[in-house]
Amino acid sequence: MERIFLSVVLLSAAAGILGLVLKGFFKLSKKRYRARSKCVIWISLLVFMALPFSVNIGRPLAAAALPSETTAQYQVTLLPGGTATPMDFSLPENSWVTVAALLWLGGVVLAIFIKLFCYVAYLNRLKQRSSVVQGERINEVLREASDRLGIRKDLRLYRSGDIQTPLLMGMLRPAIYLPEHDWAEEQQKMILQHELCHYKSHDLVIRLFLLAVTAMHWFNPVVYLVGRELKASLEEACDAAVLEQSSPETRRLYGKTVLETAYCQQEKLPLMTAPFAARHSRLKERCQRILTGDGALCRGRGLILGACSLVAALAVVCALVPKPQVAAGDSVEPSLSSQPTESTAAPVESDNWLFPLEGKLYVTAPYGEGNYTFHKGLDVSRDDIAGEEIHAARAGVVVTANTDAHSNGNYVVIDHGDGYQTLYAHCQSLAVTKGQRVAQGETIAYVGSTGNSTGPHLHFEIQKNGEPFDPAQIFPDLNAFS
Question: Which has the higher per-residue pLDDT, 373 or 82?
Fold first, then answer.
């Protein structure tokens, strides 16, 4: 979860900068872009903000899907010669990253809960205080407008005294709600066409997606700015669809209807509603677009330039967000980057070490620098490895046998003397206890996927005088790639 949180933070910062750049570009540009084109740009930005990882095509994300032809290189370092006192080298369990990640996750859950609760409560109250409109001329106007827009679904039409603006609402059963107001038939026709354009453009689904992205990036104020810009562009796009090829008199009547409705609207509406008009700071610009029309706005080279700028900016953001990779204390899918290598049960003669697992193994995360932290050991796995026995690399005393650690999961630390310690993490279960003396090759645990892990594997570390070093120095076969 920590790595997901850090990826979201980096992505949110980059996307926030991009959002401010786009906002400034649209505001300062001498040309005004079509509302539907702006909708596409803002939605594209939201889609990108919903992806906490960069795209890594051609790489499997599950430990079971092992690569057949890949290469890997390990960082080889000298054995440290420090004199530090041997110590337990488990990862900190209450780091600031973990605390921040938990706060972020709590904020996401709370934001979604509050928004959905307000939406459901408002919808239930509206349904209870609304009546179905039957046998009136406005139903015929609704059917005519639906046929003109090619909408086959018969939307229900309700009337309620609790609302001040017409609106489209209901994810599963969308319906149009009208306030108690006497409009001329031409005004009714334009209002219904506006709400039907919301339905045809799937604006309710877009608003639901906006809710999810806003909840994911609740800590970033720019995401609320992007949401306001998107909602304003959606309204302007529906206005343009209704007023396409309309006369100046029709535009003035439509603008007057929007102003009157916005003036009457006092109550704040839930996010997943598509109102005809509401009071907001973009009302003046909306009325200007209604009077001038969307057809006279910028097309051609200006729009192409804007689209190319967006694509270039997204490419830069993709480069900033790191690809997930399994490391000690991380909780994302492993990045499998090595050929299988065989570690034999025969010890290395010079040091008399035994590798903890037998048979052919895949090194899924090597020792060395990672995306966020230094990976102090290596991760090994293979097909159907869950439950296999893990053996002590050398004889020694168990100094740690933790069965519910936050990051390492179930893990064992053995002190072998002469300053050497080994750690075996993410175990399914343990076969030893703290203080127990174990012989070389004795079963100490079983391979699992506990703690911050996404697949069965063994995380194996070696330290000398409290300093980690590459296990491949003791097990040279780990570097023998075919």
Answer: 373
